[in-house]
Design a protein that fits this description.
alpha+beta; PmbA/TldD fold; 2 domains; ten-stranded mixed beta sheet; 27 strands; 40% strand; globular
Length: 461
């Protein structure tokens, strides 16, 4: 592999471009899914490819290739594209400086290597979970998904960086569906890791609980739509911080939108002093862990909010250069077919000091919202659907509720977070994040329980 790295470095030594990078990727992957009793997908295989990205003047060129024999042609094509793009460039491209790195990053495992587990054993384990779901009285169907991949990436650029790094990633969901009289309710177990296949073992009790919750929700009361004091569990709080705040902190979104740039001014207060939000690529075992991003920049822990004040955002080298800030190691691509863009890693609300039980104690009439089917944010307005919910009466959990949809304005909601639990929990996304046509990208979220005042919860009117 050292021979490949040196050969790629030689290709990058050109004086007719401002900047060049070459990325070569080898991949070994498995994908298995069930829908109801049917085995819907079972694939395993190997693939390889690479790309060239070139900057000439202020124009970018990008070309991907399947075989190293195509590399010279890919370089020529990328240079041609960049020259053409430079003719029509209307903005100056500034790449933030980073020190060149030469390093070989070995595979870092914390447990069982997914490659040591046969496809047959993986399929049988998932089939057993699927059978537990389907055997639950009241469950009408299931959705079970699993993917894993071993990836080795060799990255070089014209500034002297040469990095080879290996990574294993796995993730998935074990979902139960219950339907009665046109009403459909779901619950699921999500898992993910870059450290070990062990996260998929021993989930029997969790799977049974999720299946039973889906059935129980059919008899739950409908939420009466209005503002409430709402407590989010760590899963939903993590999805909230990723979707509602994380995407607004991505440097390309900010740099490309004058209104958002004005709104997201560094030094501006967005929440109370108890609120701290960060994004990190350093959490070993998390699906977001990576020592270097796809521009060869070291990943790091980047605070976005400190004591409620905006202190940072997420960057590639280009967006950092455009805004006069430092790169944060957030340039990521889902594979060699795509150029890197600014993406989150492990986005978290930092633990507070309030014991979780105390969050509930003085809530006379509220909602406890758990889990998430995902969410979306448009111009600072968000909508999320909780997997399940409970009424809070006089500081105690009361009847279960269904179809709880949370919505509001992000900036008002951040100000209304009035208490943060001391129980930060890491939540690995079983699927992945989507942006710019690149999906699914492995990400993670972390959060404690949080309490929000005057949050609109929709349901029955």
């Amino acid at each position: 592999m050292q021979g490949l790295t040196e050969a790629l470095r030689q290709k990058c030594r050109r004086n007719d471009v401002r900047y060049m990078e070459i990325r070569v990727e080898e991949r070994q992957s498995t994908a298995i899914s069930f829908r109801g009793p049917k085995l819907e997908r079972l694939t395993a295989g190997k693939s390889a490819g690479g790309n060239v990205r070139v900057l000439v003047g202020d124009g970018w060129g990008f070309v991907s290739f399947y075989d190293l024999e195509e590399l010279d042609a890919a370089i020529a094509s990328a240079v041609e594209q960049a020259n053409l793009a430079n003719r029509y460039a209307t903005e100056q491209v500034t790449l933030a400086e980073v020190a060149p790195v030469v390093e070989q990053v070995p595979l870092l495992l914390t447990g069982e290597d997914p490659r040591s587990v046969s496809v047959q054993e993986k399929k049988e384990l998932l089939a057993a979970y699927n059978e537990r779901i389907l055997s639950t009285v009241g469950v009408t169907s299931s959705q079970v998904h699993y993917t894993d991949a071993w990836v080795r990436v060799t990255f070089v650029n014209s500034e002297g960086t040469a990095i080879e790094q290996e990574k294993v990633d796995l993730g998935g969901n074990l979902g139960a569906i219950a339907t009665r009289d046109g009403d459909t309710q779901q619950d699921f177990v999500s898992f993910g890791s870059t450290g070990s296949f062990d996260v998929l073992r021993g989930l029997e009790a969790q799977v049974e609980d999720a299946a039973q919750r889906a059935v129980t929700l059919l008899d739950a009361q409908e939420v009466q739509g209005r503002p409430y004091t709402v407590i989010l569990d760590p899963v939903l709080a993590g999805v909230f911080v990723h979707e509602a705040f994380g995407h607004l902190s991505e440097g390309d979104n900010v740099a490309g939108d004058a209104n958002l740039l004005e709104t997201m001014q560094l030094g501006k207060r967005f929440g109370r002093p108890i609120l701290n939000i960060y994004d990190s690529g350093l959490d070993v075992g998390s699906r977001a862990y990576l020592k270097y991003d796809d521009e060869g920049v070291p990943t790091q822990k980047t605070y976005l909010l400190r004591e409620g004040v905006l202190v940072g955002r997420l960057h590639s080298r280009e967006t950092a250069g455009k805004l006069g800030e430092r790169p944060t190691g957030n340039a990521r691509a889902i594979n060699w077919r795509y150029p890197p863009i600014v993406r989150m890693r492990n986005t978290c609300i930092e633990a507070g000091t309030t014991p979780p039980a105390d969050l509930f104690a003085d809530v006379q009439d509220g909602i406890y919202a758990k889990g998430a089917y995902g969410g979306e944010t448009t111009h600072g307005n968000f909508t999320f659907r909780a997997t399940s919910a409970y009424r809070i009466k006089n500081g105690k959990l009361a009847e279960p509720l269904k179809n709880a949809t949370l919505s509001g304005n992000l900036f008002e909601t951040l100000q209304n977070i009035d208490a943060i639990g001391s129980d930060q929990t890491q939540c690995e996304s079983g699927g992945g994040c989507g942006k710019g046509g690149q999906v699914p990208l492995p990400v993670a979220q972390g959060a404690p329980h949080i309490r929000i005042q005057n949050l609109l919860v929709g349901g029955a009117q």
